[in-house]
Each structure stands twice: as structure tokens, then as C-alpha cells.
User: Fold these one by one.
Assistant:
Number 1:
Amino acid sequence: MIPGFDRRRKFADLSEQEILALAISSEEDDARIYRMFAEGLRADFAGSAAVFEGMAKEEDEHRRQLIALHQKRFGETIPLVRREHVSGFFARTPVWLVENLGLDRMRSEARAMEQTAERFYRAAATKTSDAETRRLLGDLAAAEAGHDNTAQELADKHLDPNTIEAEDDEAHRQFILTWVQPGLAGLMDGSVSTLAPIFAAAFATGDTWNTFLIGLAASVGAGISMGFTEAASDDGQISGRGSPIKRGFASGIMTTLGGLGHALPYLIPDFWTATTIAILVVFVELWAIAWIQNRFMQTPFFRATLQVVIGGALVLAAGILIGSG
């Protein structure tokens, strides 16, 4: 393909047969995505999985109606026309990414799918002069618009208040185990473990640039180490802590950020200005850790403060004393 030259067809240039073919392939894709949603949720969110399975069956029925109309008007051979063949046509989340979506994201993605499908059918209905085709496309647009009601009916059938509450609790638990817990561990490690070497280097050398380089190396090295350690320590299959890759990224990134927070001020050439700002950043980091522990891990704020702020202050003091000696 020539760079910058889009060889896809414009929607306005599609024939009525090609529009039907595009609608058929789109319904197939949507049903497949809903079933992937359902499969990904079945183990932990059986009620929501049943809702998505019901929505997939709705898409199957739409596809059946479209195929029947195509057979009647154009015969058995359906042209291969897919979303990616049409310029400006709405996209769908790739199926291989579905396993990385949480419950709330799946629900919002489903709503967006129905809204874009409705717009497509309304636009398609204006391009056909055949009364039967126009009627079916209009009916499908109305059906997609009414899928919120269908989804609600399915939800009422499969999701009683206790089930919804249990699923929301499980989703929150997964969020804590997959993102907050490893991220918090990384932030604590990066913030506290790098205090002594950074401030020891600062007071030993009095050189802000070398102190920054030492802090950068310590932060990045600790981030890589923590990320790989978290990812390799538990595959999540038995513990239910979620994807090791997600946990590894959360831990590694937060470890690096925790160390960089008080290393970056040493980009300032003046030693005492840089050091004063770095110490202030340290206490902000430590209080943030205590707040996260209290907010997400239900650790009493006083205990979290005692563990993190006082412990961090002792490490900071140790680094300054060692560097000054």
C-alpha cells in the first residue's frame, strides 16, 4: 500500500449487497465479542456472563434475519466485507484484548457497541431503495437502540440485588489484588528503600547531578527488580490475584516512581534547595502511602502512619547520617 493512501472503500460507495454483507459480518463479530465477555466472566461473575450470553443470542438472531434477506435478494454467496474494509467505519475492541477488560469496562464497551450499531443501521437504511431491506435495517436500528431494555430485562432475570452486590464486591477485590496491592508494595519499596542511598550520596558528595544519577539508577533498578519479582512470584491461578503481567507492571512502575519522586529535585543545581525539596517530597510520598493503606487496605490510619511515616523518617535519617559521616 502506498504510504498515506487509504485503499479502503467509502461507506457511501457500498452497494446494497455489500451493506448487507457488512451488517452480517458485524453481527457475527459482536456476537463473538459478547461470548468472549461471557466466557471471561463465567468463573467469577456468572450472572453477568448470562447477560452477555443472552445479548450474543440477540446478535445471532439479527445475523440470521440479515442472511435470510441476502439469500432472497442476492443469492447464497455473501461478499466478504468487514469493518476494516470500510473507511471511517466504527471499530470494535479486538477479541484478543477482551481478557484484559474488567467487568465495568465490559459493560461500558457493550453500551458503546450498541450505540454505534444503531447509527450504522440508520445510515444503512437511508442507502437502500428496497422496501423490505429498508424495513429490516430500520427494525435492527430500533432493536440496537432498545438493547438497553433487553440488557435490563436479562439483568433482572439473572442479576438479583444480592448477585449484583456480590459481583461488585468481587470486582473491587480483583482491583485491589491486581492493581492496588502490588502498586502499593512497589510505591513503599521505591519510596523507602531508595531513601538511604540517595540521601547518603547527596550528603557524602554534595553534588546534585551525581546524586540524581544515583537516584535514577536506584529507582529504575528497583522498579525492574520489583516488577519481575511480582510477576514471577504468583501466576494468579490459585491465589486469584489476577494477571501476573498486570501486577508486575503495577509494582515496577510504582517502585520507579516512588524513588524518582525524591531523586528528581536533585536536577536543581543548588544543593540545599534540592535537598529541602527532596525531603518535602519524601514526606508527601510517605503520607500518600499511609492514605492509600487506609483507603484501600482498611489499615487504621494511625497504624499506617506509624509504620510508614516513622519508618521512612528513620531510613531518611540513616541515609543523611551515613552520608554526613
Number 2:
Amino acid sequence: MTRAISLHDVSKTYLKGVRVVDRLSLDISPGEFLVLLGPSGCGKSTVLRMIAGLEEITEGQLLLDGEYGNDLPPSGRDMAMVFQNFALYPNMTGRDNIGFPLRIESPGADPGRRVDATARMLGIEDLLDRFPSQLSGGERQRVAMGRAIARHPSAFLMDEPLSNLDAKLRNHLRAEISKLTRELGVTTVYVTHDQAEAMSLGDRVAVLRGGVLQQVDTPRAVYALPRNVFVAAFIGTPRINLLRGLVRAPLDGAMTISLGKQFLRLPEPLSLDHQLLRVQQGREVIVGLRSEAVRIAEPAAARPGEVVLTGLVEHMEFQGHEVLVHFNTGSRPAVVPDLEAPRPARRPVRRRRREGTVLTRLKERADALRAGPVVMLEHPADTGPGAVAAPESRLPGDLVVRTTPDIRLQHGMQVPLLVDLARLFVFDQHGERICPAPDRLPDLEE
């Protein structure tokens, strides 16, 4: 038996008014593998503990199979939790650790058969008579997983179970977890800050920041259509290139996005996504280009929808199967100072002005947006046309391009680059995606 889990406007507030989860709504289908992803301190473990009943819900509702579950004790929720630190009893063997919850549930029954079946499933039959101190980290985590599996719960709750293991073992156990949960068909909620785990394991990924749900979708959709600049930068390796741009949309000429010393000329006729950029005329925006959206090639090899930039080689990272090349294009990197912070800086709340006509207020709002700084960007001291971030605050270059290892480049070489505008992301002054166009266009009254 598996379980549907629903969270409706759930919030968690600690003493002194510290809100770590803010009006979170999520629907998890029976048998689904959902990953809660975000930086440390963003509230994802708190969400997991509220589902498990280890934390009280301050506001909102938890529904288990459609029934109100806020007040259910942890023992009444039929869920099994796998912790980051294994949480094995040091004075019990692997067999006793796996069988312990079964003995608690049914004191008179013999758990031996279920323990043996679980051990065979995990391939740990030879570890059952060892104590935790005699096991490696990976072996301890297998025993901890066996303790959860043996219960035949309606849901698995996993709180960063692989973060204490080395990289090779993490990859191996990640594949095992994926295989096991799909074979068992049990609803699984998995917490991690590792995007590789999230993308490879989850049926869907829910990205959290500051206790607020940023986006929930399939791994492919979260990568291809991030809702905002935070999701775009948090998902993907290497990190997406974020550049400060200025939209120029003259009535009698081609639309361009200035990047400082160079610009991107949007091909005509304009696509629907690019037509919507006219609203940003004269405004500063954030341009996002993933490393695979740019390739090294001569202008003559440009395909339809590709435009030319020129880059100066500043640094190369050899990865074996690929090379990451850092170029200086004279662009201005978009430095988002609190991008990695679990809690974004609070924006000042503007009070509505009651005086004046609606038209006057709309004009004032438009002028403020046009003249004001990009809210999510940190402006360097020099904000002139060629200004860039201080070298110590960023990696070499302003554009990272992924290419094949057989390419021959040298430091200081000037190279032609082709940018695929079909893979262009544009975010507004608040970091919300405006290109490709969002599913729902904003209302003028919002």
C-alpha cells in the first residue's frame, strides 16, 4: 500500500517569529518519487519532518490519502524515515537493527523472515551479524535503508541519506535507491542539496528557497524552463552564464540585447518570445546562457537562429570527456549576491499612494522600473558601459562554453562564438523569467 501526501499552505514558524517554511503547497501522488531540493537552511528538512510528524505544523493542512493528518502522531502515519547520520543502535547487530521496528510493531511475532528478505533485496546478507562499528559508511546506510524497507511502509522519507558518503559510493547507492523505490512502488520524499541526485532520482523536483516553493516540475522541465533566475542558476553544471543586458527595440530597426561591448541581434521575423521583450525596451535585464547554448565555430557555419560573438580565452578546465572554456566577451556578469543564501534579502514593501489618478500611478511605476536598479543585481562601483565585477568575486571570464576535448585553444586566443538564440533565457529586474514566455502572463493590475 502506498500513500498520497498533500500539503496545503503549510507554514512553520519558530520562536521569535522566525518563519522557515512559508505557505507551501504540494501534491504528491501515490508511488511518486519527489525530491525537495535547495541550499542548506532553505526549509526542506523541516518540510520532511512535518510530513513525518516530528515537527508541528504552525499553519496549513497536511492530508494523507485525503484525510486530515496534522494531529496524527508519527507512529500513526505509517511512514519510514532514513536519516543522514544512519541512526543505527551501536549495541545491536545489523539483523537486530533491521528487525527492531518490527518487534515494536508486533512484539510476539518473529521478524526473521522479513529481515532476511530485506537483506537479500539489498545484498547485505553477510552483514547481518556485524555491529555498526564493524561496517563502512555505505554498509551502515544499507542497513539503515533495510530497517525502513522491512516495515513495508506507505511512504519513505529520506533526509539527505547519501551526503556523508564519498562520491563513488554515492553514485552507486543512488542507482540502488532508484531501482528499489521503483520496484516497491512506494511514495518517496527525498531531501537533498545535490542537484545531481535530484535530477537523476526524482519523478518531480521541488526547488525551495527561504521556505518558499520556487518551482515544482519534472527534472527535464526544471532545467529547460526555470521559472526564475534562482532555479536557473541552482540547476545545471556548470552554472548558467548570467549576464547583464539592456533591451533595445527601435521601431525602425532590429531588436538587440546589449551585453556591454557586444550585443545579441534577434533574428527577424521575431518569434513570439522575442516579441514580448519589446515591453522591456530600455530596461536592464538578466541574460541566461547555458554552456551548451554557445559553440565555437566560424560565422560562416552559423545555423538559422545563431548569432555571432567574439571571445578571448582566459581559462580552460579539462574534464576528460569535455573541456570548459572561460571566455572574456566584454560582457557584464550579473552578480546576484544572495543567490546561494538560503534566505533572500527582504525587499522593502512599498505603500500604495492614494493620491493622483490611475494613469499617474501607472506612469510613476513605469518610470521607477525604468530608472531603478535591477533589484537582484549587485552593481559594482563603476557602472559604466565596460564595467565588470571585481576579479576576486568571480571566475575568469564572463562566459563558460562546453566543448569537445580535441579542440586546440590557447590562453589569449580570440575565438568566434555562435549563440543559439532558441536557448536564450531572459529574466526581468526581479529575476522572473520573461523569455521563453511564462505559461501565465502577468496581469497589469498586479
Number 3:
Amino acid sequence: MSSPTVVEPAAAPPPWLEELPPRQIVAELDRYIVGQDAAKKAVAIAVRNRWRRAQTPDDIRDEITPYNIIMIGPTGVGKTEVARRLARLAGAPFVKVEASKFTEVGYVGRDVESMVRDLVDAAVNLVRAEREDEVFPQAEARADERLLDLLLPAPPAPSGQQPRPTAPREQVFVVEPGGAARAETDEDSRTRSREKLRALLADGKLDDKDVEIEVTPQSYSMLEFMPPPQGMEGADFNFTEMLQEMMPKRKKRRSVRVPDARRVLIDEELKKLVDMDDVVNESLDRVENHGIIFIDELDKIAGERSQAGPDVSREGVQRDLLPIVEGSTVQTRYGYVRSDHILFIAAGAFHTAKPSDLIPELQGRFPIRVELTPLTEADFIRIMTEPENALTRQYQALVAAEGAELTFTTDAIAELARLAVQANDRMENIGARRLHTVMAALMEEVLFELPELPEKQIRFDAARVREKLAEVVSDDDLRRYIL
């Protein structure tokens, strides 16, 4: 495995994770997630199958169904992280929903089709960000030109009146490339001044200057604060946007600092350079062919069938989910979207219920079932040392912001893992999330005193870890609230 590198948010693995072999997809996930090889293998096959489907003939392509997966395992073992990291690495639209939010539809729940609408919104934001990254240098150049026009306004156009005489200015001569000299014109002088301002702007020496710009104030229509009726989100929002487009755009002048004006102008230029019709078309295509919907807490809507009470609502949610998962057409604010080839990954602890408690039709739409194993003490040690976003590295970055250096010895990390496992055994087993609570208790005093600490070299070994956490671990009442 190559040495860890800093990954920029906009730099997804070129061009698609789907084009990598499953073994390489697993290797990419290994950079961030420890263990759970069975789950990584399943999602790698599911992602690669999308690329394989795109290579098939047209007459069979629509018949190939997605490789939908159910992940079964206790909380904190990495179910959500596998799906989220997969979508981030693939540059695919991704949305996470909780199945329990769809219970009691029409009363306190949500319409199940809203998950597809949320996915489309996520895709539009994703594609628009990519398009803006592509044209950002051009938008910056245009904004700088507009800003220079504000800092050095053009001379007023000549009118029919005779201009008043002005004092003669000192004659300046310009040497042309051929060696000939000519008198400098007003246009030459303005160009020279503009280039000086450009250099000052690039060096940040004009940041304390104020300029007047025209901005369109954000309008908050009352329609935006009114929730749309259940099942009418798409049509209602289209109607609202249509009314806003019909209303005249009001402009007002504001005096702002140069950096703020530059940011506003860049945003305006980006809107001009990015074709939203192209963004929407690309987004809808990505949703239909590359979108991933992660349905968490699926076990909360599973239960023994034919029972009265809340289970009736649970089975109703399952029946509402069924047409979305098996493939239907959903109306969104950007157009109609087919969910036939969206990849659905469901997850649940399934402590009190079993996957077989789901209605048979829904079970058939999730043919792949993967069991995630509980994390061990050795896994906790790996989680704190191996991933690129390891918890120890996150705290080192936070401490480095104060000009200090934080180090953990090998036995300190082993002690933290032991205490986390011990806390999970004595209380609820929340998996790797216990590491966050243990580390927060360990680092609380350091982070509070850090700005005033004279010693900027902070080192934790096993003895210091035991000393810091001894009271917390030994006191049952404290553990109840802190760990």
C-alpha cells in the first residue's frame, strides 16, 4: 500500500471507482476502514457490476438488476462508514436515510419517495461543485476584471458640452518594441494604472479597501417556509421556483471590503459559466445509474407479521419501500427519475428481529446479506493507527492548530483499546464509537488548558492514560454519563 496522502475533497479517484477491479476497490476502502472484509467484498462487487452492466448490449442492460445488500451487525462496527466511504470514493450521489422516519406516514413520518428526491438534490450539488471547480480559474479572472473596473472606473463618456480646461500633465513617452518613442495617451496611462492595481490586488494589499457592488438580496418567500403536502414535494417546489423566477429581481448597492466583493463576484461569474441544464441532465443520469441509497435501521420496521399496533405501520412502510426498491418513477423538482438501477444498501443490528421478519417481497429485493463481525481489542488498535483518518491523527491535527505536538506511544494506544473494550463489556456495546468517548475523556483537560500550556510537547504513554482515566473507569456512576 502506498504511503498516506492528503486527498482533496474535489479530487475523486479518476475517473470512476466502478472502473477499478473489485480487489482495488477493497484496497481503497482499506485506507479508511479496518476489518469487515466480507462487507467490503460485497460492496466492491456491487459497484463493479455497474460498470459491467454498462458494457452489456442494450437489449439485456435494462434486465440486469442492482446488487442490493443488507448489512447485519451491531452498532459501531462500520456499516454506515462502508457505504458512505464507498460513495465518496466513487464520486456517486449518496444519501443516508433512517427507515424509522418513514413510520406513521401522514402523521409524523416522511413520504418514502423523499429519499429519491434527496438523492437528486445531492447529485445536483455534487455535479454543480464539479462544474464550478472546472471553471473556477476562469470565474476568478472575470471577477478580478470586474473588481478592477470598480477600483478604477472608466472615464465618463464625452457629452455634447465643451469640456472644461484642465491643468496640463507632465508629458510621458512610451518606447514601442521597435525602438520608436511616442507620447503616452490617456488610455496608456489607465492601462498602466490598472496593471499596478492588479498586482496590488494579487498581493492582498487592497484587502482593507471598500468598494460598492450591486447584489441581489436573498428573498425569503413565505412559500419557502410552508412545508409541502405529503407526496407533493416535487410539484410544489417547482411551483414556488416558477413564482420566484417571475418576480422581478431587485438589486441594491452595498459597500463591502475587497475580499468580500471578490467572493460575491466570483459566485456571480460561476453562475454564469455553469450551465444548470447540463448539470441537471448529468445529475439525473448519475442518480439513475450510479446513485446509492443507504437505508439504516431497517430492523426497526421489521417484526412478526399480522400483528396489531405499531407493527401494522412497520409493515406499511415496508410495502411503501417495495416499489421504490424494485423500480418506479418518482417525480422530483428536476424531472422524473427512475429508481430501477439505484443501488440500495440496507443495514440494521437485527437484535430483536431477523431479516426473515421482513415481508417476502422486500427480502427478495435484497438478495445479498452480509454479516459484520463485532470489533475486538486488536481491531481497536488498528482503528487508531492504520486508517488515514485515524482518531489519533485527528487529535494530533487539532493540537497542532495551537502550535503543539501530540504523540501516543504504542502501549498508550493498546491501553486505550483495552479500556474501550472494557467499557463496551460493562455497558452497551457501541463498537468503535466507544473510542471517541474514551479519547474525549482523555483529551478533555489537555484541550482546555492547551492555549496556556508552556510545554508544547504532549506525550501519552500507558501509565499516563491509566492515570487520566482511572477515576472514570473505576466509578460506575461516572462511566454511566461519561463513557
